[in-house]
Model the fold of this input.
Amino acid sequence: MKILGFDLGDGESAVTLLDEDSTVEPRVLPLLGRSSMLSAVGRKDGRIVVGEEASVLAGAENAVVRFKSRYLTDPAAAGDVRMFAQGVMQELIKTEPALMAQVSRTVVGCPAGWGEGRREQYAALMESAGFPNVSVVPEPRAAFLYARHARGLRVDPALMRRSAMVIDIGSSTTDFAYIVDGHQQDLSVFGDTNLGGGILDEMILRRAVIASPDREALERVMQESPAWRSYCELEARRLKERYFLDEEKWTNTPLTRQVVVCYDQTLMLDLSLDRQAIGEIIRMPSDTLGGRSFMGCLEDALLAAAKVSSACVPQVVILTGGASRMAFFQEACRDAFSGSLLVLCPEPECSIARGLAYAGRVDERLKVFRQEVASIARGERLSRVVAASVHELYEPVAHALFETAKDCAVKSVKVWRRGGVNTIEQLDALMEHNIAKAFSGEDAVKRVEGELRAWTDELMRTLEGELTSLCMRCGVPPEKMSLTGARMDASLGGVKISLLDAMGMDIVSGLMGVVLAVVGASICGGGGIALVGTGPIGLIAGASAGVLLAIMGKGSMEKMLRGVQLPVLLRQLVTDGAVLSGIDRQREEIEKAIITALADPRSGFAARLVASLSETLGNQMEKMAQNAEMSICA
Done:
């Protein structure tokens, strides 16, 4: 699979190609013999022409430039963008037909300020121009991905992981991306959608027209002929680019260019740049900037970026975009981030296009990663793994429930013995309440926590190999999805809830019935345990059988005996030791009954526990995956 990165800029455009599985950096595809091409479009002899051919001097009709900056405000600009994209695609197919046939995904850049709806419209526009499977990515993110992966920058990875600010200045916008620990922050992508190097082209042209003896005639041409105005702006852009490639050379000697304008008469326009002129131009009020100067807007944007990143000051500031070559821009960035390492991209006109290709690969891997994590976390795979080992929990769960119920019984008997409740019937109700409350609290799970953790860890080890393989394929550090490394600390509470939910009221009620019967026998002397002697106390022993039978649900007479109120002095004969002894004698029988109830398919315990644990563990996996995604995206 091949991915196309298309940086359609307001001043220049570039295209790169990346193989999905290649370790080689994205390759720049030449456009009309250049690594980057002027973003200009027109028609000549009925065909679309782009770049240098889209000029009135080259015979092009209706040639236009800087259409991307007008895309948000001028409905006609969408047609210009589409026509330019069509022209670029035609050039690519003509020069690289075999490669273009293999392209399965296109990633196009946009300014940070564009919303999701605008990006969707832009993607549809690019697809209508012939680019396949288009996605739109903010240019600052592409710049960061380029900086992260590019070998030519030689930025210390440790600095990139700590904190970084990417500043992308193009022809139409200045965008920022703020990254901490390799992750883009919530306010990471922002910028000024109007502040770009193309404004300087306008200002250079405006300054030259104002200084010309033919000012009125030139202003009329600029107003009446968009094609000639576009041509003059391109000439101003060429002058600007040549100047900033070697500013020192033009410190004292101005760089000049004479433009011949042939409209209804021949006019001469003299363009000139030196250090003083640049100083004047960047402080001139601009209509595009609402009467403010370029330098004033730039300083405000950098101040806002410094404020956003003040909590974790960037260790490295990466400058990209064609206009990043401007010395005054670099100096302003140094002033705003005085303690940071300033890094300049070696080919700023191509860095965004390369970053967009990287973004395409990253997003493709992210898609696979999300789908496969979801298939494990929400599919049958996790449920099967849980179901295969859930029986290992029955014995420790039964033991924990038994111990919890026993403690509740002893505490309840103490209340009965002191006269807090008067009858066996009331004692049964108290125990039932206390046991139900204990089962819904922390005690039962705390008793089984060690076994539950060991069982969960083994389950995670079963799944870990599959997740590690997925991480390796998708470029995610395996430790980001280490379930055993995380030890499921965040999910033990969820496992507790799952355990209680899975028991169901039918199992809880049945368990309480068993415990209540044993406790009643221990109190009253039933079950072969003689707690009382002869005489008046013997009457109690005789009554105890009836009470026990009543607990088991037999006969109306026995039910009536449950309401007998025993004297408090006689109750003292029923000690804690007697109750504990009576229950412990039947521990094996009770725990076996609990295990049988848990394992019985008719109770639904196993099915509910598998479903509940699968959901809990699946949620944990997806939370970890969301955090791991940042390692892919950033």
